[in-house]
Specification:
By secondary structure, the protein is an alpha/beta fold. The protein contains eight helices and five strands, in the order E-H-E-H-E-H-E-H-H-E-H-H-H.
Length: 233
């Protein structure tokens, strides 16, 4: 499979602000982008509709959705219906119950396998170490460790044909800086989705951590959230 410009990347795409902006960045850097999303029985499966729209709008070369069931493992408010999504949390130092055990490790492993098949040497992830919920698999040291592992674990790297890179271009940006960057790149944020616990009518709850980070980001960016306009909120 030949690339027009010789640069191919797998981009993890949830449909949220960070991953969608990351896809826009990867495209702006000249990569042919292969977007990868996951239906893992998450409570907020609505995000996959946004992932499809974003992948199409940003002209991903291909958009793949892989399905598996992390609700069988549970342990997270996003996959276990017996655990409520916290709302209106104040500042806390603990890792929240919305953390999904090993999620980024699972996602990156799928991305690595696809990258090896595609002949891509780069994986983009929208991890952020500034405005985030304290997830351990969003830290720079975790991403560096996965990159080292990727270059030990694959035939292509062991044979010297590829040196894999894990790129997290938003790692040290605040949410408002991310939104400004995406806006400059022409990303339509009305296509994106952030809410962890959609209401019965399908609208965002505006109270979960992810909704609050989104509201704060758009407010600090001085931009009206186009998703709220679209949803009539």
């Amino acid at each position: 499979m030949m690339s027009i410009n010789g640069k191919k990347a797998v981009v993890l795409l949830s449909g949220g602000i960070d991953s969608s902006t990351t896809l826009a960045v990867a495209r702006a850097e000249g990569y042919d982008c292969y977007a990868l999303s996951f239906d893992y029985s998450q409570r907020h499966k609505r995000e996959l509709e946004s992932a499809r729209m974003v992948a199409q709008a940003l002209k991903a070369r291909r958009h793949m959705i892989i399905r598996f069931d992390l609700s069988e493992i549970g342990g997270s408010a996003l996959t276990d219906k017996g655990i409520e999504v916290p709302k209106k949390r104040g500042a806390v130092n603990e890792i929240p119950v919305t953390y999904v055990p090993a999620r980024n490790t699972i996602f990156l492993s799928f991305a690595l396998g696809w990258a090896e098949v595609l002949g891509a040497d780069t994986i983009f992830i929208g991890a952020n170490a500034v405005d985030y919920s304290g997830y351990p698999d969003c830290r720079p040291e975790y991403l560096e460790a996965f990159e080292r592992m990727a270059n030990l674990a694959t035939r292509a790297s062991v044979e010297g044909r590829v040196k894999y890179k894990i790129k997290a271009p938003l790692l040290y940006l605040t949410k408002w800086e991310i939104i400004r960057k995406g806006t400059e790149l022409g990303l339509d944020y009305s296509l994106t989705w952030s809410c962890y616990d959609p209401l019965p009518d399908g609208k965002p709850c505006l109270g979960c951590d992810s909704c609050l980070f989104r509201l704060k980001g758009f407010e600090e960016a001085g931009i009206r959230d186009p998703l709220l306009e679209k949803e009539g909120l």
